[in-house]
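Colleagues,

For the teaching module next term, I've prepared a clean inverse folding example: a structure given as tokens, and then the sequence designed for it. I'd like students to try predicting residues themselves before seeing the answer, so please don't circulate the second half yet.
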């Protein structure tokens, strides 16, 4: 800035000397205007800061105009130099405005870039948050879907289990009905009767030889059917009990009833029934089922009874 101010300051000092000597040239209005324009430019901080080179050239142009005026060159020459000085000042102001505009533009562009960057950053952050939220929602949806699938599979399994149980129950019920029907048919064939002790099958006196424990030929079919029953129902057991009428001695009757009970047991074992499933005992003339005062009553009392166990193998004692 010092060179820029050198000529105008020197001119000012020269003017002061000339004024003191009383020989100051006539003022040129164009030169006065150039001086005012230059002073205004010097007072403008923007021009001083942003266009120092142009302002220096303007000062040099003003110095030349002042020199021409001091040397009392023709007014036209002074006016021309003053015009050039004003133009230089105008160029300095214009340059300062240009630089300021460029700086403002750069600042505005930078601000816009920063705004765009901030907007893109915000947009990216929002997108990331949305993506993260979507991922979380997707993960939750997957967990819910998997839980629903597990629940559905468990429900299907429960339904299948219930169907199997129902089918098994149906089969079991059908089997039970078939079992009961078959059992009833077989028991009917054996002329079994339901008593308070359980199912009872009676071998009458007619199946034995007279006053003997030997089974007659008529008993073979009855023994075979009873043995087949035991083969079909292996959980069943039996108590074979022999009885007589009241004729004859007590010891004889006891012996005969025991031997007849053992004879039936032996016949069944001979047909393949496990001996451990059969027990035999003689009860003599005890527990008659009819009176001994008639032939038919005595015949009814001479018998062998087979007491069948329940399905669990239990036989009710007398």
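(Answer key — instructors only)
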């Amino acid at each position: 800035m010092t060179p820029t101010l050198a000529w105008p300051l020197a001119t000012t000092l020269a003017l002061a000397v000339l004024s003191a000597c009383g020989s100051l040239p006539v003022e040129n209005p164009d030169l006065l205007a150039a001086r005012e324009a230059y002073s205004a430019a010097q007072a403008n901080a923007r021009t001083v800061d942003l266009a120092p080179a142009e302002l220096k050239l303007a000062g040099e142009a003003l110095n030349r105009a002042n020199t021409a005026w001091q040397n009392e060159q023709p007014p036209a020459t002074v006016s021309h130099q003053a015009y050039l000085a004003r133009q230089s000042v105008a160029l300095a102001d214009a340059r300062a405005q240009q630089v300021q505009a460029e700086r403002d533009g750069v600042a505005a562009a930078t601000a816009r870039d920063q705004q765009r960057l901030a907007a893109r950053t915000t947009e990216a952050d929002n997108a990331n948050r949305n993506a993260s939220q979507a991922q979380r929602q997707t993960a939750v949806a997957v967990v819910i879907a998997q839980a629903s699938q597990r629940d559905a599979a468990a429900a299907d399994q429960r339904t299948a289990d219930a169907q199997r149980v129902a089918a098994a129950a149906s089969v079991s019920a059908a089997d039970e009905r078939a079992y009961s029907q078959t059992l009833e048919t077989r028991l009917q064939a054996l002329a079994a009767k339901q008593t308070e002790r359980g199912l009872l099958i009676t071998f009458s006196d007619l199946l034995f030889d007279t006053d003997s424990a030997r089974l007659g030929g008529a008993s073979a079919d009855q023994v075979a059917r009873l043995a087949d029953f035991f083969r079909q129902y292996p959980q069943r057991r039996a108590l074979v009990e022999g009885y007589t009428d009241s004729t004859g001695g007590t010891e004889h009757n006891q012996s005969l009833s025991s031997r007849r009970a053992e004879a039936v047991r032996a016949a069944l074992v001979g047909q393949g029934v496990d001996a451990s499933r059969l027990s035999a005992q003689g009860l003599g003339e005890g527990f008659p089922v009819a009176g001994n005062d008639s032939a038919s009553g005595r015949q009814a009392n001479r018998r062998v009874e087979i007491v069948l166990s329940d399905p669990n193998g239990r036989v009710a004692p007398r």
